[in-house]
Design a protein that fits this description.
Bit1; 2 domains; 6-stranded mixed sheet; 6 strands
Length: 216
């Protein structure tokens, strides 16, 4: 039997094969150890918002449509009640049992997209609601409208002149009437009157102003 000392040094091929086997085994066991969390999970720092709180950053691709308008009364400070209520006294319609509704009259000549129209109508709805609350937080017509499902009807008008005439007529009947003016950051010129909100009010009273208009 040959003595170990009589053997020559390993060949280059044997060294290479041995190294490959050792490396493969080491990689396998390291991978298994990592998969079971032996080395701990990597810590990924959370992004911080501008407020300093950690969490996902807000989606910067959201539309600006819903921040592009303002109601004429709301352009003033909320503390200036006389300026904010410069549309006459609101009728309470005592004893009314009729269905109440809110009508949104949209300018048809501006070429607004559906999304733009939806945003402007939302502004008009909120402006009317806030105006009614400022006038009387417990306004009977407002409360009745809330109880009966907050009906809203979208109509169309051909131009700004006709819209302002409708507003004047509504105010003369004691109805809440708010015109929304666009800020001009997206589609149309700054200051453009886009939507007239009338109500909430009894259906028959609003129809005195808008019954001749077509649905949007």
């Amino acid at each position: 039997m040959a003595n170990v000392q009589d053997r020559g040094p390993p060949s280059t091929a044997a060294v290479a094969i041995g190294t490959a086997i050792v490396s493969g085994l080491a990689g396998y066991f390291l991978g298994q150890a990592s998969s079971i969390g032996l080395f701990g999970a990597a810590q990924v720092p959370a992004r911080r918002s501008k407020s300093g709180k950690s969490g996902p950053e807000p989606d910067s691709s959201s539309s600006d449509e819903d921040s592009d308008a303002k109601a004429v009364p709301d352009a003033q400070s909320s503390s200036d009640e006389s300026e904010a209520q410069d549309l006459g006294e609101l009728e309470t319609f005592p004893g009314n049992t009729e269905e109440c509704k809110l009508v949104l009259v949209v300018r048809n000549d501006l070429g607004m997209t559906k999304g733009k129209i939806a945003a402007q109508c939302s502004h008009a709805t909120l402006a009317c609601y806030k105006a009614m609350i400022r006038a009387d937080p417990s306004h009977p017509v407002l409360r009745q409208w809330e109880r009966m499902g907050q009906a809203k009807i979208a109509l169309k008008v051909d131009n700004e002149e006709d819209m302002l005439m409708l507003q004047a007529q509504a105010v003369s009947l004691g109805l809440c009437a708010q015109v929304i003016h666009d800020a001009g950051r997206t589609q149309i010129a700054s200051g453009s009157a886009t939507v007239l909100g009338i109500g909430p009010a009894p259906k028959s009273k609003i129809d005195e102003v808008t019954s001749h208009l077509k649905l949007l």
